[in-house]
Amino acid sequence: MDDPKIYAGPWTIAVKASLIPDTELLEYVCAENEQDRPHLVGKASDDLKYAVKVAPEILSQYVGSYEFQPPENPTNLLTSNVTFSGGELFLDFEGKDKVALIPMSDTIFSILGDRIQFVKDDRGAITHYISFAAEGDLKSIRKPDKR
Amino acid sequence: MTALSTTIVACLIGASLSAQWLNQPTAGIPRTADGKPNLSAPAPKTSDGKPELSGLWRLGVEIGVAANITSELPAGEIQPWAAALSRQRLGDFGKDDPEITGCLPGGPRHITRAGLAKIVQTPTVLVILYEDLAYRQIFLDGRQLPQDPNPNWMGFSVGHWEGDTLVVESAGFNDRTWLDFAGHPHTEALRMTERYRRRDFGHMDLQVTVNDPQAYAKPWTVSAGGTLAADTELLEYVCAENEKDRVHLIGRTEEEKKVIVAPEILAKYVGVYEVGSESAFDTRAPRNVFSITLVNGELLLDLQGKGKVPMIPLSETEFSPRLLGTYQFIKNEQGVVTHMLVHSAEEVLMAVRKP
Predict the structure, then answer these.
(1) Which domains does chain A have, with CATH numbers?
(2) What confidence score (pLDDT) does residue B1 get?
(3) I need a labelling partner for B221 at 20 to 30 A (CA). Which of A4, B113, B127, B268 fits?
(4) Element (H, E) at B254
């Protein structure tokens, strides 16, 4: 990427690519049945108004790495990391794009306007989080602790 | 803005685009002694002996056919529901045209419409790229069309060679696209057959057969060939960019819907009208000739002998066939219709009535 009018120097990013045999490119038409736009109001930061206080000992339970298997490319696992710092939870994707999670409840958090919810098993251990997307609920499974 | 309008605008602002690739010389093409592309040179072949169709082409049906693709069909071969739907869409001036006002893919209209198309041919797939960033994949690898496809906008296409002719079969279109500006519909049963034959280096014959037995009694064929577009390049056109038209497209007003023009007045407008100078909207047409006829109490318009689109009255002197805009008939002091003005977004054309 090189745009000297905005950025001081060029930079390079790696883009993952893998051959996808035995299938075909099928069309996607963004404008088809588009009904979202009038509902897209406000800003992600508006969620700050509705943030609740969550005790640090609860927040720290969510810390860990989570793995998401994209349905369209199951071999290309996406790892996200939840960290706790300065009394706040953060989420990043493979070490990049770290964003603060705004607590909406003890288990539900806002990330850039979207919602994720941490889920426990019967013993109270966090097993995964769910991202609520237009396409459906997407599950990111917690990886076993390295400790 | 329509693709047609875009072509017009591109012509008008050509000078400012020259810094892009609008005048990029095409590499590796035969040229005459004076350096011009030799469009009459022999058609090239691929390394495996097939005709090479790759290149940037200006293809498509004539503008009258784009306006009304069914104009050569006997009325009885169009199912009543399809004819009624077309009439309703014309009466609304195409305000719900999915391609023009919805910025959705044209599907079958991508196959027939006039404009630039870049063909990229490989032994197993032929790809066609369009200015509006749409594309088609025509598979040449021997696969069959899908048996029960999820209908989509651009359909599914396979091709095979019959001698030097590439025969392309397409199916699996959804039923949301229109076949022409007159809003002729089709169903999901639509099949399109294209027959491409590169006559020489710069000329492509293309016959397109439309077959939809659920809407039309029999298949019919239109010509959609064209010429190689040498020494230029495909430049993008983005329908949704700065789109401000849609909210203004309301069809006819309630007042306009009540307009009825007496047959004796309509009869005065019948005739042939000619645009005095070459217009930008169809560079293949040396002179634009509009013919107005009166059939069953309504005016029909064709352009260059094609089309026959009903002209929807807006007043006693103004009509719209949804082809290039609004047509206004002008009389002289003796009350004789001398010419008509064609009002479009881009220009006002004057077409003089021939004796």
Answers:
(1) 44-142 (2.40.128.50)
(2) 37
(3) B127
(4) helix B254-257
